[in-house]
């Protein structure tokens, strides 16, 4: 997760958006921590849904270990330093992460691929949506391509968190 955050920060730096030190602290340090916490929420959702939908109870330590190894594709995020391909590389890293996590969950639990897919997509969607909500024009917490959310809010003048709570 740190590599994806560093890649997003390098993209920010090389694109000349300014305040590189502030964004480094927010996205690499705090964003990596927030990503890790939401990744655990993702796995908790997977665990709960597999238990509910398929009656499968996976050993938590095995699920964490396998899902941890499945984060390897996020290291591609360092290639976001190349501005011409940065957003695409970030999306590929996130997509590959989803796929490797799918394989890790299937191997760990032995559950049917369709049930694992539902649980994994629910967890991933929660991760992405919550990370997107945490990343605003003034809080560049999102790793990799999610960092672009802060720019979109700056350009549009609309902060999703304000829209959701009605301010």
How is this fold's topology laid out?
Layout: H1 2-15, H2 20-54, H3 60-69, H4 86-109, H5 113-134, H6 148-156, H7 160-165
Helix pairs in contact: 1-2, 2-5, 3-4, 4-5
Rough outline: elongated
Order of helical and strand elements: HHHHHHH
If you average the pLDDT, what whole number results? 86
Structural class: mainly alpha
- For the secondary structure, the number of strands is 0
Please count the helical segments: 7
Sheet-strand content, in percent, reads under 5%
**Domain tally:** 1
Helix content: over 70%
Distance between the termini: 32 Å
Output the radius of gyration.
17 Å
pLDDT < 50 runs, ≥5 residues: none
* Main sheet summary: none
């Amino acid at each position: 997760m740190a590599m994806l955050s560093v890649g997003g920060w390098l993209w920010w730096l090389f694109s000349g958006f300014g305040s590189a030190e502030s964004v480094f602290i927010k996205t690499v340090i705090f964003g990596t921590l927030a990503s890790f916490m939401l990744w655990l929420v993702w796995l908790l959702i997977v665990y709960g849904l597999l238990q509910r939908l398929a009656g499968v109870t996976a050993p938590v330590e095995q699920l964490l270990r396998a899902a941890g190894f499945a984060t390897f594709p996020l290291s591609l995020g360092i290639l976001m330093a190349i501005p011409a391909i940065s957003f695409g590389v970030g999306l590929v890293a996130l997509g590959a992460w989803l796929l490797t996590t799918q394989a890790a969950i299937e191997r760990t639990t032995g559950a049917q691929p369709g049930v694992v897919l539902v649980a994994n997509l629910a967890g991933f969607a929660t991760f992405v949506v919550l990370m997107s909500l945490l990343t605003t024009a003034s809080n560049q917490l999102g790793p990799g391509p999610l960092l672009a959310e802060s720019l979109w809010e700056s350009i549009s003048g609309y902060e999703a968190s304000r829209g959701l709570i009605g301010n």
